[in-house]
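Box 3.1 A note on notation
Throughout this textbook, protein chains are presented in two layers. The first layer is the amino acid sequence; the second is a C-alpha cell string describing backbone geometry. Keep the layers aligned when reading.
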Amino acid sequence: MSRFAALRRHALVTVAALLILPGASAAAGQVDFATTVSHLGNQDHYRDKRPQERVEVSLPGTLYAPPITVAVVGNEDADRSTLLGAVASDYSAWRNNDAQWILSNFVPEDQQGLKKFLANEELRKANSVIFSPDRTMEVWGIVNYKEYGLVLFTYDNNRRFGAVATFRKMSGDWKRTNALSGDRVFDVVWSAFRSGDVTKK
C-alpha cells in the first residue's frame, strides 16, 4: 500500500453537527475535480500519461461558500440517518476517544482493521492531536459517487491538510468506509481537493 493510500485509510473525519454560517451557499450541481498525474496517490492508473498531464472527473454534488464550520455533538444526539449527521457522529466519537462509538460509525467489513488501530495506545495518542480543542474543522462540500457520499473537509481552513471521507448508506444509516481507497476516481477527487482545482458548474 502506498503512503498516500495508507493516509487515506486512516484520515479521520473531524466533522460535527453543521453550524451553517450566514451567507453560506450550498446549491446542488456538478463539481469538477482536476489535478495532475504527478499528484495522484496511485499513478499506475495513468501509465499512458505524463506526470504533468491533467486528469479530471465531474461528480454531482455541492460546494459550500464559505466552508461550513462545525461543532461537536453528544452520543445521544447522533443521527446517522443523514450524511451530515453521520459525519457529526464520526467526528464526535473520535473527539471523545470512544472506541465503541467509533466502531459503530464504520461499516462491518472495516471494523476489524480499525480495532487493531484502536488497540494501539501510541497511535491513538498521536491521533488525538488532530482533535485538539483549539483546532477548527470545515466542510467544503459533498459529492456523490456510485452509492457513496464523499465529504470534503479541512483542518484550520487549510486544503493542504484536507481530506475526503467516504460514507455508504446501509439499513437506513450512513457509515464510514474505506472501500474507495484504491479507486481511480476517488484518487482524483482526493488529490484535486488537496493540491488541484475544485470548481462547481
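Residues 1-25 have pLDDT under 50 and may be disordered. DSSP finds six helices and eight strands in the chain.
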